[in-house]
Design goal:
Structural class: alpha/beta
Distance between the termini: 31 Å
Shape: globular
CATH class: Alpha Beta
Strand order of the largest sheet: 1-2-4-3-5-8-6-7
Number of helices: 6
Number of strands: 8
Helix content: 25-40%
Largest sheet: 8 strands, mixed
Number of domains: 1
Radius of gyration: 18 Å
Strand content: 15-25%
CATH superfamily: Zn-dependent exopeptidases
CATH architecture: 3-Layer(aba) Sandwich
């Protein structure tokens, strides 16, 4: 069963797993387009093609939440008060004003004013989070617990945000606060089956707002963020094409990571 509206699409699954893809949206509302630079309308900082990469989720029985609009409109993985997620480092905003390169997204003088940021929060951010919270509540009511997998991807090298090349797979659990240790361990053990793929746990990416806010193990909701390098499955430069041959090499590992995390979560409540 799917819930489709102006802001998001939610497919409701049967197992206690919700996969959120907050940065997969590519649209910018027509009424906002004039304020952006021409380059910004290409929405290059999208988490491209995750719906294709995670195409095993329906068979797994997972719920999947996907937004319609680009993170350039509003970043669904930032707190509503726009507090920095990584103090002391370069941070993107609730309503981003710069590319990941640090260059401006908006034409001069067209950056969103406080009133516009508040409007976007109400129109785009809140519906997504209401759906996310509601689906977690449904799964928890049905199963007694829920696992949230927050799916992301990013170019492997972005000097404005981090030095050097990222590890291929970046697992974040808010330094262990958002998920039981057994769930994280299951994901790490799955990664160990592919030693040629590099992995980091709670490194540069510890989980954004979604992971940190909704991951509440004491309340039987566990959350993990995966930030993966786009070089594993696509072209990192325009036209940002999906590479089926590359993707086919990493998909079995990705499916194992998600499946093993779910099984570890289920097992922790069967003891």
């Amino acid at each position: 069963m799917s819930d489709i509206n102006e802001v998001f699409t939610l497919h409701k699954g049967a197992v206690p797993l919700l996969v959120s893809m907050p940065h997969i949206g590519t649209e910018i509302p027509a009424k906002l387009k004039d304020g952006y630079t021409d380059e910004a309308l290409r929405v290059e900082d999208t988490d491209w093609h995750l719906h294709l990469l995670y195409n095993f989720l329906p068979a797994l029985g997972a719920s999947v939440l996907r937004p319609r609009y680009s993170r350039y409109v509003i970043d669904l993985n930032r707190p509503p008060d726009d507090a920095p997620m990584y103090p002391g480092a370069s941070n993107t905003e609730l309503c981003p004003t710069r590319f990941f390169s640090g260059e401006p997204l908006y034409k001069a003088g067209h950056e969103p004013a406080p009133e516009e940021r508040a409007r976007r929060r109400e129109a785009y951010w809140q519906p997504y989070h209401s759906a996310l919270a509601g689906e977690l509540a449904r799964l928890k009511a049905q199963h007694g617990f829920a696992l949230l997998w927050d799916a992301h991807s990013i170019r492997s090298q972005i000097p404005w945000l981090f030095e050097g090349k990222l590890p291929d797979l970046n697992i974040g659990t808010a330094s262990g606060a958002s998920a039981n240790e057994a769930i994280t361990a299951a994901v790490v053990q799955a990664c160990a089956t592919a030693p040629h793929i590099t992995t980091a746990v709670n490194g540069r990416f510890k989980g954004g707002y979604i992971t940190r806010h909704y991951g509440q193990p004491a309340s039987h909701v566990h959350a993990i963020q995966l930030e993966m390098c786009q070089s594993l499955y696509m072209q990192e430069v325009q036209p940002y094409a999906y590479d089926e041959a590359l993707a086919a090499k990493v998909q079995p590992l990705l499916e194992k990571m998600v499946s093993d995390a779910l099984q570890a979560c289920v097992s922790s409540y069967e003891k």
